[in-house]
Each structure stands twice: as C-alpha cells, then as structure tokens.
UniProtKB/TrEMBL annotation:
Residues 186-209 are annotated as: Disordered. PROSITE patterns: 4FE4S_FER_1 (PS00198), 4FE4S_FER_2 (PS51379). The gene is nuoI. Pfam families: Fer4_7 (PF12838). The lineage of its organism: Bacteria, Pseudomonadati, Acidobacteriota, Terriglobia, Terriglobales. Keywords: 4Fe-4S, Cell membrane, Iron, Iron-sulfur, Membrane, Metal-binding, NAD, Quinone, Repeat, Translocase, Ubiquinone. The keyword Hydrolase does not apply. SUPFAM superfamilies: 4Fe-4S ferredoxins (SSF54862). It comes from Candidatus Sulfuritelmatomonas gaucii. Residues 52-82, 98-127 form the 4Fe-4S ferredoxin-type domain. Gene3D superfamilies: 3.30.70.3270. GO terms for cellular component: membrane. One of its GO terms (molecular function) is quinone binding. This is NADH-quinone oxidoreductase subunit I 2.
Length: 209
C-alpha cells in the first residue's frame, strides 16, 4: 500500500506522544529535585578518598605517594606527606597524607588520578550537587571532606568495588603468607643452631697446701 510506512511512523509518533501523558515508562520529564534519575554505575564526577573501617583517618588507604598529584593534568591535587608511618590495610608501615586537597573548581573529572593510584585509594564519586556561594574555599575539598568509606564505594560502584576488594584481599594474603614463612624460617634456624657449651669449671683460686 502506498504510504503505509508513513502511516506506521505517524501512528508510532502519536502513540509515544499521547502515551507520555499516561505511561510512567514514556514520561520524558523528571520533576527534579523531587524526582531523580538513578545514577549509572559507571558515572563519574569528582574524586574521593576511600577508607576502610569506621575511622576515616586511621583507615585511609592513601600513602601519600603523590603519583596522582604529579599526573593530574590541571594540577588540582595538593598533597603533604607525613614524617612518620602507620600500618596500611596489609599491616605494612606506610606514610600517609597530612594534607590532601582537591580543587574541584579546576578538576576536569578525567579519572587519571584513579588510574595511576597503585593503592586503590582514590575513586570517582557520582555526587554532582556541589553548588556553593563560595567559589574559592567552598570548592577546595580537604582530606576529611574527601574521605568516604568503602561501604559508600560499594553503594555507588558495586561491581568495581567488589573487584577491588578481592584484589586487595589477595595482596594482603600474600603479604601475610610471606611474613609467616619468614617467621617460620627464622624459628627453624634458631632451633637448628647448636646450643652454646657451658663454661668450663675454673680451678679454685689460691696456692697449694
């Protein structure tokens, strides 16, 4: 039939048009902020720092290696390294950042900091509602503001966070196994070492009869 394709196209357009008023699946307008579209898992906005456990400062994964600071294209990351060390997730003493700032007014969400971090310490957030009336201090986030728990990381990026946890658990198991093997070798070496001979009895002091 001549024009059948045109009629089918017009019917589909009409169905979508009138359906948008009655069908929730066809609604094109979201009444923000009362209604919100779920954020996609692979969405990224600005970086945040991951910490393990309940205490953000004690559980922070960052060891202040400063690779992200050096690799950041817009140079929006500022890090000061500590003078002392604290145990990391594997129990190994590591440095930690006494200062970790990100200027999100400069950050371009390129994710390079995430890709170069060898400790899975920095990840991309999905939070975009960061408007402030202070264009300087309000957009300069310090380490406490950047710190978010591993549970939060699992909430926004569940697939990625599960893979990271599995990888970190394997690394921790290797470190623990290596330490255990070294301790067992040291104990075996100590057990195999001959016991020192007791000192010979000395003759009594003094002359003869």
């Amino acid at each position: 039939m001549l024009g059948e394709g045109i009629l089918k196209g017009m019917a589909e357009t009409a169905r979508n048009f009138f359906g948008s008023y009655v069908s929730k699946e066809r609604l094109t307008t979201v009444e923000y902020p009362e209604e919100r579209v779920p954020t996609a898992e692979n969405a990224r906005v600005f970086p945040f720092l991951v910490y393990d456990g309940a205490e953000w400062e004690a559980g922070m994964r960052c060891v202040a290696c400063q690779i992200c600071e050096k690799e950041c294209p817009p140079k929006c990351i500022l890090i000061d390294k500590s003078k002392d060390k604290k145990p990391d997730y594997a129990g190994k003493p590591q440095f930690y950042p006494t200062r970790f700032d990100i200027d999100i007014s400069v950050c371009m969400s390129c994710q390079i900091c995430v890709e170069v971090c060898p400790f899975e310490a920095i990840k991309m957030d999905t939070q975009f509602e960061l408007a402030t009336d202070d264009r300087f201090a309000g957009l300069l986030l310090d380490r406490k503001e950047l710190a978010k728990s591993n549970e939060y990381y699992h909430t926004i990026h569940p697939t990625e966070a599960t893979e990271v946890d599995s990888r970190l658990a394997e690394e921790k198991a290797k470190v623990e196994a290596k330490a255990k093997a070294a301790a067992e070798a040291a104990a075996a070496k100590a057990a195999a070492a001959p016991n020192p001979a007791p000192p010979a009895d000395k003759p009594p002091a003094g002359g003869g009869d």
